[in-house]
Each structure stands twice: as structure tokens, then as C-alpha cells.
Specification:
Number of strands: 49
Shape: globular
Strand order of the largest sheet: 2-9-8-4-5
Strand content: 35-45%
Helix content: under 10%
Structural class: mainly beta
CATH architecture of one domain: Sandwich
CATH topology of one domain: Immunoglobulin-like
Radius of gyration: 33 Å
């Protein structure tokens, strides 16, 4: 009896304990923390026309009317920008704002700012001296990157790259990695490459003295010729490869015939640059370590012999593709000299055939050098070219300037110890031209630079600002390095992936120096579709 009573008391106590705990757990916490949205700005009582401005385009300092409602309420704090550059507000009513196009405006989006709050407005095209040539056929363009463009003597142009189609000709048409276009950008169908380059990339093309094309890249087949070429090929302007027909006896004793390319050169890795010297010989540079040649069916036997010669990054070959052993070569050991100890990023040939070479190297034939050198006609180091310490970073572009000078650009921040941010002019002897000073310059790499026909300098690259002015990949500067008024109104480049990068791979001057053609990876420039190539005039 007593045990039973104690058991019931224990059960009752346990139940009361559980009840108290549950009530305590369910008690509402009266502490109130800081509202995470308490500092949020109230929504602007402002509506803007995002579709159009009046007019839809205009020059620097012209007046533009923007429409909407609620402007007067924010008259004191309201700011208007043209592609990031602040405009002067001329007048404000509740439904209209009149502004002056700012001095360094470029085509793009007009935005409204009230404090830290931003409202997008309409697009506006700023007109200037530099304009897109709308008669040039580049709206459809190439379906992938164009790496280079080469002018032919008759006005046509060769484009090379990673594309498999141009102007919707169709992938089966064979204009893969290489095509010929007219001076107006129209596909030249007299070039019939069969299947073209079915794989790999074509980086560069040059015109040889016999009128045929030499192309370099990373490939091992052309049309139906699989594994008969390697990273370099000689092609006619109609699309054929020069061939030699060999007769041989196969292992069963049957007599057969086979065609193989007449051009003798092969390389074990990519060819990036080709330069034709005045005597017709060709300088080849790239990431290769071996030059190779093949002997087909010797003594009419069913065999192919491959010979290789170790050569670091640069070689000179003859017009038939055979190796020129008078260029940086030791004939006693039958081996190439050491050459560069690092990659070549860019090379430029002077009118006298000497070579300016820039890269990631620190020595040449065992001798310490800066990142830019000049080579004599025999490949030896030209010690009259003295850049001092040279650039402290990569040079990605070398172009001729005036009186033997050269325009260089890249990722460097100084040249021979003097500040020169990503673009400079150097004298014929390698010293810095101190009259050209870009100041703060670009806030990203300048991958390409060229002197235009009117003396101004066009810069392109992976930058958004130049001297703190919004330029989005393209800037034009004067001969002293300052931004050129009226030449910087073009809106920036746009890409299909929406990831900004270096937009242009090569630029050539055309139309007797009154225009230029740019090729690269972009899809649009100045609010207009121009797919991987565009012609600008001035």
C-alpha cells in the first residue's frame, strides 16, 4: 500500500516537472533585435522613360531631353550620367529633365542617381569623329573568335581563327578557321578549301612572294589530308595544297601512288607568328621545340622517314619549308643554338629584315637580356639595341611608329625604370621616347595598339577606364598620350558571354589610312552588332 502510494507521488511529481518545463520552453522571447531592413531607403517616387531619349543620339555638348514623372521632388539631389560620365543638368520640370552631353561621354546607358539609388534610363548613342562603317558586312560575321587579319595585294583580306562559319555560309562550306573576304567584308567563295581545317586553331596567315598563303596555328589536318601537315601549311588562294605524287611499291609488291604536301616544314607544337623577310625567307615563332621534315617513299619503298631538329621557339625556313641553317644555327654540331629560354609573345620585323622580339624570356643564347631584344639578319643578338631593363611586364603588341620608332603595349607598368603604364613609344635604339606619356593610362592590359592614318593612336584591351574616363576596351590618344577629344565617343565592346576580356586580336589600317578593321572576340561595339570584326572610319 505504502509503496503504491509513493509510486503515485513520484509519477505526479514527474508530470508537474514536465509541465513546468514545457510552459517555460513555450514562453515567448520578448527581446527584439535590430531590424535588418530598418536602414533601407524608401522607394523613389520617380518614374523614368527607359525606352528613348530625345534625340536618340547626339554629339558632345548637345542638349538631350529625358522624360518621366516625379523629377521636381528630387531636383536638388538628382544626377544624370551618360555611360558613367556625369552630365550637366540644364533644367528640371516634373516630367522632363534637360541635360548637356558631357565632354567625355560615350554611347551606352543613361542612368539617374538620387543619393545611392540608381535608376536605368534609355540607351543613347554619342556621335563623334570616330564612327562605325555600316557599309562593311560584319553584322553576322564569324561564329567564333578571329585571331588575325591579313591584307592581300588586291584589296581582299584573309581572316584566321577558331570560327567554323562566316556570314552564315554554312559549316559544310568548309570556311573553318580560315576564309577570304572582300574589302567590304563579303565572303569570297572563289576560295574553296574543301573541309577546311576540321579541328584546331589557325593563328596567323601571311602572303608569300609566290602569291600563296602560309598559315600557322595548332592543327594537323586540312581538307582530307589528315596528319600530313603539322601546325604550318602552305595553301593557294583557291584553297588547294601544293602536292607531289609519289610512286612506291607496297609490302605486297603492288605498285601504288600517293600525294603528299610539297612544303617541307612541320613543327611539334603551335606556330603563333609568321614574318616574311625581304629575301623571301620566313621567320616562324611559337611554342614549339622541334622543327621536323619528312622524306616520303625513299627509293620507292613503302616508308616515310621523319627527321627532327631541336629549335626553341623560333626558326627561319626557306620558301619551300626547309630549315635555314644559316640562322642562329651551329653547322659544326648540326644543332640550333640555345635561343630564347622562354616563350615569345610578339615579334615585329623592321623594313631591313631585323627582328624585334618580346616575350617571357630572360636570356638569348645564354646571354642575359631584357624582355625585348633585336636580332640581326643571321639571328645573332643586335647589341646596338639597348632597352636597359626594358619593360617590367608582358609586351603583347609591337607596331611601327615614326622614324624607326615602335609603339608597344601590354601589361607592363614601367620601361627601363620609368613609369609607363601599359603603353609606350620606344626609339630605334631601344630607349624610351619620353615625349609620349599616357599618365594613369588604362586600368587593365592594353593588348593591341596601332598608329592610325591621321597620326592618332588606337588602343584596345581588357580595361574599363583610361585616365579615369570610362572607355570599356577602346581608347584613342594623341601623339603625347592624352585622350583625344571627339575620338572617344564609341561605346564599349560587348561579348556573348557577358564576361569582359581583351576584345581585339588584331588591327589593320585600310582605305589609305582613313579607316581601320578590328578583329577579335566581341559581338557588339557602340550599341551595334558587329560579330568579331568591325570597320571604323574617321
Amino acid at each position: 500500500m505504502i509503496l503504491n502510494f509513493r509510486h503515485k507521488i513520484t509519477q505526479l511529481f514527474t508530470c508537474l516537472t514536465l509541465l513546468i518545463c514545457s510552459l517555460t520552453a513555450c514562453k515567448k522571447d520578448t527581446y527584439v533585435g535590430k531590424d535588418p531592413y530598418g536602414d533601407a531607403k524608401p522607394q523613389l517616387d520617380l518614374k523614368v522613360n527607359t525606352l528613348t531619349a530625345s534625340p536618340v543620339e547626339g554629339a558632345i555638348a548637345s542638349t538631350v531631353t529625358l522624360s518621366g514623372s516625379g523629377f521636381l521632388k528630387y531636383k536638388t539631389d538628382l544626377k544624370v550620367q551618360f555611360n558613367g560620365e556625369q552630365a550637366e543638368i540644364l533644367s528640371v520640370t516634373d516630367t522632363e529633365v534637360k541635360v548637356k552631353v558631357p565632354e567625355w561621354a560615350s554611347s551606352g546607358l543613361i542612368t539617374y542617381m538620387v543619393g545611392a539609388q540608381i535608376l536605368p534610363g534609355p540607351k543613347f548613342r554619342v556621335t563623334g569623329t570616330l564612327q562605325i562603317d555600316k557599309t562593311f558586312n560584319s553584322y553576322v560575321g564569324a561564329n567564333d573568335d578571329i585571331y588575325s587579319i591579313t591584307a592581300l595585294p588586291d584589296g581582299r583580306m584573309i581572316i584566321a581563327g577558331n570560327f567554323t562559319d562566316y556570314n552564315n555560309a554554312g559549316i559544310r562550306a568548309g570556311y573553318s578557321k580560315l576564309a577570304i573576304i572582300s574589302s567590304q567584308g563579303v565572303l569570297d567563295k572563289s576560295y574553296k578549301p574543301g573541309k577546311g581545317f576540321p579541328s584546331g586553331h589557325v593563328y596567323k596567315s601571311v602572303v608569300l612572294q609566290d602569291g600563296k598563303i602560309l598559315v600557322g596555328g595548332n592543327f594537323n589536318s586540312f581538307d582530307t589530308r589528315n596528319n600530313q601537315i603539322s601546325n604550318i601549311a602552305k595553301i593557294s588562294l583557291t584553297g588547294g595544297i601544293d602536292s607531289t605524287v609519289y610512286t612506291y611499291t607496297d609490302r605486297s609488291g603492288e605498285i601504288k601512288k600517293s600525294a603528299a604536301p610539297t612544303f617541307k616544314a612541320f613543327f611539334n607544337n603551335a606556330v603563333d607568328e609568321l614574318l616574311v623577310q625581304p629575301d623571301g625567307n620566313i621567320i616562324v615563332s611559337g611554342s614549339f621545340k622541334y622543327y621536323m621534315t619528312k622524306t616520303y617513299y625513299p627509293n620507292q619503298k613503302d616508308t616515310i622517314i621523319t627527321d627532327s631538329t631541336q629549335i626553341n621557339y623560333m626558326a627561319r625556313i626557306k620558301p619551300d619549308g626547309s630549315l635555314d641553317k644559316t640562322y642562329n644555327f651551329n653547322t659544326q654540331t648540326n644543332k640550333a643554338n640555345e635561343g630564347f629560354n622562354g616563350f615569345i609573345y610578339k615579334s615585329y620585323m623592321q623594313a631591313d629584315g631585323k627582328l624585334i622580339v618580346a616575350g617571357g624570356f630572360s636570356s638569348y643564347n645564354g646571354e642575359n637580356v631584357s624582355k625585348i631584344v633585336r636580332l640581326n639578319l643571321d639571328g645573332s643578338l643586335d647589341k646596338s639595341f639597348n632597352p636597359g631593363t626594358g619593360p617590367n611586364g608582358t609586351i603583347s603588341s609591337i607596331q611601327p611608329y615614326l622614324n624607326g620608332q615602335m609603339l608597344i603595349s601590354g601589361e607592363f607598368l614601367s620601361y627601363n625604370g620609368k613609369n609607363r603604364t601599359r603603353v609606350a613609344i620606344i626609339n630605334e635604339n631601344g630607349s624610351l621616347d619620353e615625349s609620349f606619356d599616357p599618365g594613369v593610362s588604362a586600368n587593365g592590359s592594353i593588348s593591341r595598339a596601332i598608329r592610325l592614318g591621321n597620326g592618332k593612336i588606337l588602343l584596345t584591351g581588357n580595361f574599363q577606364k583610361f585616365n579615369n574616363i570610362n572607355r570599356f576596351g577602346l581608347a584613342v590618344v594623341e601623339a603625347n598620350g592624352t585622350l583625344s577629344p571627339a575620338y572617344n565617343t564609341l561605346g564599349g565592346f560587348v561579348f556573348s558571354s557577358f564576361i569582359f576580356r581583351s576584345p581585339v586580336n588584331e588591327i589593320i589600317n585600310v582605305d589609305n589610312g582613313e579607316a581601320a578593321i578590328l578583329v577579335g572576340s566581341f559581338n557588339s561595339l557602340d550599341l551595334q552588332q558587329n560579330t568579331r570584326l568591325v570597320k571604323i572610319k574617321y
